[in-house]
């Protein structure tokens, strides 16, 4: 490629404060040589250039592809990304965001026509057992090539034939937009803070944060990446600290808050209020800004005046809920980005925030700060990686019902051939699940173990389920799994084999529901249940089971149980994303599937009493109740005469639970799993969980359940035990009861 063409492309980017992309397609070694020559001749210092690749090849900073997240929060004039050996969608999204306005993104790729057939590390990883690399398609790579050819601002140079098929320059040349009027300071926002804002958008958002000067308020700021929401949060935190307030900042990682602390420190210095900086910024007025990781921040250490949660969508909801005890709150979250959408915050936490005591203020930032709003590379990334995917607009599906929607299978080929269908289906997943990300788009299009089913109304997606085929593994693979080897793409067989020691579990074939989502406009109409019913009818006779694994909540347990799924396992550690303990549930479809379910449901009921008193001692009682009630088995009661005398004597006489907890726990599990669900009130069932199964201290348990005292809670447990003895007791139990009830 002639250096003059590359210089002209870069000059256009600089004039417009936009970015440009240069694709060097063809032999990798030739592409590296071309990139080296171009970078040597372009007016970009090597200190402002980064190579993202599996191996180092240029005289600049090198970041391994798997570690592309190191570029988060940084900007470079030029980034070279090598997609030959590892075309990793998440890494590509991170790389695009690291290029500054006036900069250049250089992509090393195979010949574009051949790219879909070229394997790489990421593509090879999609071949989960029992599939192999030959089963993986190249639809995602074809999507990249097609969008690169179609979008403006992208130059394509064939290094093998020395052919520039597109010089990447826009015609007519772009012009910078006229600047917006300068925002004016107000009584609530210092002039120095307004001056520190890069865009009027930021200044308007900062005005919303001013509500935090008074307690009883919460601010939610959302934006796409690169809009400066963390900078605004830093300015707002500085304003509070300058007035003497203690501001606690939390985020998934300390590095996520680098920009927040930098902007806060700079503003406090301008205000003459900065006393010290570092991990904790202190002010002359006695205020401070400090950081804590989410688990520690949830305890509100030091009783802060305000809490700022940056990238709140990536913080478990149970930790965000703990922050609601603070009367000044700020949450920033990403709408679209390399890791998917900040919709998890909306889906999981918004309702709880709305029910809190704080008045909620909403603000959004739309103007990019690193490059002009006319930048052509951002729309390319949004289209290629579906970062902006959304469900169908509400009127298009508003009339959908379980009776009118059509059940359809959506293969990767179907989705690749219909952009609107793909955007609507993927958009539904994004809207309902925080962890839907660009890697998931590639899996959806190319992975041989994944398939999708949907309910479609008038050609638009109203409900969707993403499924993964699991199991059916060979003897040697199952033996390796039993011995502790992880087998990708087979989560349920893996857990049942390696953790629960069932080497035969992976002989069966099942489909795990990875994601299920219904359009917000038509939720609670039964569409999700209709979709699951159709799945059962379709796969009955073609698989052994349907399954699901998810962060357990009472509502989700009830939903899955109502649709025929039965609990076989509760994890003993919390899920990193949801912050909840995960449940695994099965719906058996064949004799082999029923045998698998029956033995694991039985094992679950047998062991859960001990697990609840140990690893799951902090499990929410309603989650425990829901998981037990959803277990389709009948646990053995098998209490001896002496056991029944012990239980009945504690219920009606002077007997004590503490002398022998075993029969009490067995009775509690039996009833919560298979007994009359209406025999005991919800609070009495919670007492069975908290007192008998989790052995929680009485004072805390009574307080949590709303009893006036521990003794009142003990009496309520006694009443519950009397009902259980009457319902389940043998002749020995009745005889013991008679000793204390007959005149």
UniProtKB/TrEMBL annotation:
Subcellular location: Cytoplasm
InterPro entries: Acyl_CoA_acyltransferase, GNAT_dom, P-loop_NTPase, TcmA/NAT10_helicase, TmcA/NAT10/Kre33, TmcA/NAT10_N, TmcA_C_sf, tRNA_acetyltr_TmcA
Chain sites annotated for binding ATP: 202, 370
Binding-site residues for acetyl-CoA, renumbered to this chain: 516-518
Span of domain TcmA/NAT10 helicase: 222-387
Gene for this chain: tmcA
Keywords of the record: Acyltransferase, ATP-binding, Cytoplasm, Nucleotide-binding, RNA-binding, Transferase, tRNA processing, tRNA-binding
Classification via PANTHER family: N-ACETYLTRANSFERASE 10 (PTHR10925), RNA CYTIDINE ACETYLTRANSFERASE (PTHR10925:SF5)
Gene3D superfamilies for the chain: 3.40.50.11040, 3.40.630.30, P-loop containing nucleotide triphosphate hydrolases, tRNA(Met) cytidine acetyltransferase, tail domain
Family that this chain belongs to: Belongs to the TmcA family.
Enzyme class name: transferase
Entry function: Catalyzes the formation of N(4)-acetylcytidine (ac(4)C) at the wobble position of tRNA(Met), by using acetyl-CoA as an acetyl donor and ATP (or GTP).
GO biological process assignments: rRNA acetylation involved in maturation of SSU-rRNA; tRNA acetylation; tRNA wobble cytosine modification
Segments forming domain N-acetyltransferase: 426-541, 542-589
Chief site of localization: cytoplasm
GO molecular function, a single term: tRNA binding
rRNA-binding keyword on record: no
Protein name per its UniProtKB record: tRNA(Met) cytidine acetyltransferase TmcA
Assigned GO CC terms: cytoplasm
Domain TmcA/NAT10 N-terminal: start-end pairs: 3-158
HAMAP family in UniProt: tRNA_acetyltr_TmcA
Enzyme Commission number: 2.3.1.193
Lineage: Archaea, Methanobacteriati, Methanobacteriota, Stenosarchaea group, Halobacteria
């Amino acid at each position: 490629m002639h250096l003059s063409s590359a210089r002209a492309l870069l000059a256009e980017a600089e004039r417009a404060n936009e970015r440009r992309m240069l694709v060097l397609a063809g032999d990798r070694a030739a592409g590296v040589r071309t990139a080296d020559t171009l970078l040597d001749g372009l007016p970009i210092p090597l200190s402002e250039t980064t190579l993202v690749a599996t191996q180092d090849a240029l005289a600049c900073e090198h970041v391994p592809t798997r570690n592309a997240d190191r570029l988060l929060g940084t900007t470079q004039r030029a980034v070279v990304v090598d997609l030959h050996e590892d075309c990793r969608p998440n890494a590509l999204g991170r790389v695009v965001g690291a290029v500054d306005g006036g900069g250049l993104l250089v992509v090393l790729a195979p010949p574009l026509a051949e790219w879909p057939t070229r394997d790489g590390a990421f593509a090879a990883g999609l071949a989960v057992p029992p599939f192999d690399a030959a089963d993986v398609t190249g639809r995602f790579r074809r999507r990249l090539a097609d969008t690169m050819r179609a979008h403006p601002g992208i130059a394509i140079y064939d290094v093998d034939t020395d052919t520039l098929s597109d010089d990447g320059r826009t015609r007519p040349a772009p012009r910078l937009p006229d600047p917006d009027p300068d925002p004016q300071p107000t009584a609530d926002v210092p002039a120095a803070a307004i001056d520190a804002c890069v865009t009027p958008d930021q200044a308007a958002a900062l005005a919303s944060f001013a509500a935090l000067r008074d307690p009883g308020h919460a601010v939610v700021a959302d934006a796409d990446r690169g809009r400066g929401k963390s900078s605004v949060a830093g300015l707002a935190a500085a304003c509070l600290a300058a007035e003497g307030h203690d501001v606690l900042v939390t985020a998934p990682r300390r590095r996520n808050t680098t920009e927040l602390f930098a902007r806060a420190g700079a503003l406090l210095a301008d205000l003459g209020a900065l006393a010290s900086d570092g991990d904790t910024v202190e002010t002359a007025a006695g205020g401070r800004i400090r950081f804590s990781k989410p688990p520690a921040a949830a305890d509100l250490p030091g009783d802060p005046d305000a809490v700022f949660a940056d990238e709140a969508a990536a913080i478990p909801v149970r930790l965000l809920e703990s922050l609601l005890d603070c009367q000044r709150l700020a949450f920033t979250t990403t709408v679209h980005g390399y890791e998917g959408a900040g919709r998890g915050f909306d889906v999981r936490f918004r309702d709880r925030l709305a029910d809190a005591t704080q008045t909620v203020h909403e603000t959004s930032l739309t103007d990019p700060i690193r490059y002009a709003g006319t930048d052509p590379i951002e729309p390319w990334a949004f289209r290629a990686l579906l970062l902006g995917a959304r469900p169908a607009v509400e009127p298009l599906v508003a009339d959908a019902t379980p009776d009118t929607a059509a059940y359809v299978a959506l293969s990767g080929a179907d989705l690749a051939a219909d952009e609107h269908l793909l955007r609507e289906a993927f958009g539904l997943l994004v809207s309902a699940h925080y962890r839907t990300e660009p890697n998931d788009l590639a899996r959806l299009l190319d992975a041989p173990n994944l398939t999708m089913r949907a309910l479609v109304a008038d050609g638009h997606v109203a409900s969707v389920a993403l499924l993964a085929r699991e199991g059916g593994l060979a003897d040697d693979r199952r033996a390796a799994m039993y011995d502790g080897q992880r087998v990708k793409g087979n989560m349920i067989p893996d857990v049942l084999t390696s953790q629960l020691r069932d080497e035969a579990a992976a002989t069966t074939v099942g489909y795990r529901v990875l994601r299920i989502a219904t359009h917000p406009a038509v939720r609670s109409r039964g569409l999700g249940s209709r979709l699951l019913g159709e799945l059962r009818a379709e796969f009955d006779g073609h698989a052994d089971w349907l399954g699901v694994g998810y962060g357990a909540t009472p509502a989700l347990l009830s939903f899955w149980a109502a649709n025929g799924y039965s609990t076989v396992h509760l994890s003993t550690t919390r899920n990193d994303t949801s912050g909840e303990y995960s449940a695994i549930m099965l719906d058996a479809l064949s004799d082999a599937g029923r045998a698998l379910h029956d033995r694991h449901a039985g094992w679950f009921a047998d062991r859960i009493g001990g697990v609840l008193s140990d690893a799951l001692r902090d499990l929410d009682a309603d989650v425990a109740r829901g998981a037990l009630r959803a277990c389709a088995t009948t646990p053995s009661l098998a209490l001896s005469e002496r056991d029944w005398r012990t239980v009945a004597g504690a219920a009606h006489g002077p007997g004590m639970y503490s002398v022998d907890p075993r029969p009490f726990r067995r009775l509690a599990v039996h009833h919560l799993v298979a007994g009359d669900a209406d025999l005991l009130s919800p609070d009495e069932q919670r007492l069975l969980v908290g007192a008998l199964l989790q052995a929680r201290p009485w004072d805390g348990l009574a307080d949590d359940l709303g009893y006036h005292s521990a003794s009142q809670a003990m009496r309520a447990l006694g009443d519950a035990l009397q009902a259980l003895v009457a319902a389940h007791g043998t002749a020995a139990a009745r005889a013991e009861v008679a000793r204390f009830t007959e005149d």
